[in-house]
Amino acid sequence: MAQLFIHRPVLAWVVSIFIVLAGLLALPNIPIAQYPQVAPPQISISTSYIGAAPTEIYESVAQPIEEQLNSVQNLIYYRSTADSSGALGITATFNPGTDIAKAQVDVQNAVSRVESLLPQSVVDQGVIVEEASAGFLMIVALTSADGSMDPTGLGDYINRNVVGELSRIDGIGRAQVFASERSMRIWIDPDKMTGLNLSSSDVVAAIRAQNAQVSAGRVGADPNPISQQLTATVLLKGQLNTVEEFNNIVLRANPDGSTVRLSDVATVEVGSENYAFNSHLNNQPAAMVGLQLSTTGNALAASKAVEAKMEELSRFFPAGVQFSIPYDTTPFVAASIEKVVHTLGEAMLLVFIVMFIFLQNIRYTLIPTIVVPIALCGTIAVMLVAGFSVNVLTMFAMVLAIGILVDDAIVVIENVERIMAEEGLSPLAATQKAMTQISGAIVGITMVLAAVFIPMAFFPGATGIIYRQFALTMVVSILFSAFLALSLTPALCATFLKPISAHHERKGFFGWFNRNFDRATERYSHGVQRAIRRRGIMMVLYVLLVVAMGYGFIKLPTGFLPNEDQGFVISDVQTPQPRVRTAPTRCCIRSPTCMRPCPRSPIP
Length: 604
Fold this sequence. Notes:
This protein is an alpha+beta fold and about 600 residues long. It is built from 20 helices and 17 strands. It comes from Paracoccus cavernae.
């Protein structure tokens, strides 16, 4: 293959240009994140059973859904939580690598099979099945600077005008609102209900009957007389909108002609739909929405798109309302990627300097400098096809691969330079002869290095997910380096290098460097020879080093991922559970055949 590209350097350039174009086109589309998706995919199921206790919610809603979830493929486990406000959340966790879209469809089908067994109020509220995320990408908050809007007004505005716009942004997987919309609240007085012999079901039935959208039909619709020339749709106002209209709902008509209205037994007002939580920002009431990144989303691009969308929407905010982003994880991600990119540039600069000092020719140095970016572009293109992301681990793999990428090119250049210096051949003839000598060595080096990193891609569990992208990025970079060492590098050597005379000696700085380097190499050789003569002592030192390494490996603290300061402090405060004390067992009167233990009386 090398001989083909030596005689056709234009072909080598064309292939390299295609690799560069593929990398440049893939770079804007590849996801950017701090780490790979470590956590297994999750699907969340949420609904509400207002007015029910947590135990009742589990027995009538959660348990039937859980029984159907057991038949979903690739499901590892599920977790259900219910609170006193009637909210229910079920998180289903799947095996790593499961197609999240297919899993969501399977869960949706499982929920559909059990809907007929759920309480009617739960069916009316709806059961939401959506992709879950481990944490929030960012939190957007609305506040009223002048206090003209209360928390309920802010919540109603953010639900109606902001959440939908943010949910449609590319890369946003879920928008969770921490604010309630306005709602018609009916506060029933139990004493009045008892005095009028009414129950809460009577109130609910009356509201449903008198607050409903009714299809009244059409006047003059077919079949109609031939003389009928017009048809008209009958509009009937069935839904109530104001507090006064709800107050006038008739709960019961008495035989004496009197009526019992809703205002007689309840207080009606426009309030918040849910009073279970409050949001504050800098000690001011706020309405917040937490945004979670989708599995294929680009964190940086999504964050910028959210900021741009909020800037666009802010022009239409009511007077005194302003937005802010109090929590955003992308600056840390951007800083991490930026530091790695700087390290990548520094590594390439150091490699260039070292190569120039040792190769001592700018032409020899430029060839590896051209080859390395091409190999990295090819790696980025493969990363996009493989579904990888630009993260700390893949960037670290590229930084580490730079030193390996230049090795293949240096091996080719040094051998070509040696043949030209010793035999006085032209660059083309020297390159042809050099590639016949080292082509097998380049393939062998590549296979050995790939064999070192490939096993890391098959680690099971979360460890395998973390290191799979690192290992495969290394392997792909090494393979591109070997391909370029057999194609572009020999083509550049044959056309770019200049002939040199046999037994050419350097002068000046490079001559001084070569002489000192040769003396250092000679002293190192003598040191190795002395160490070989003292094999016993060397083996003892080797064993001590191995023991020290093992001791340090055991004593060093372990962790899943290093803890890094992201500039946020998140606290979770939980109150203790109430305790119920019981009195000792008391004697009770019972029959001689009774086998039940005496009851334990609770002590408040």
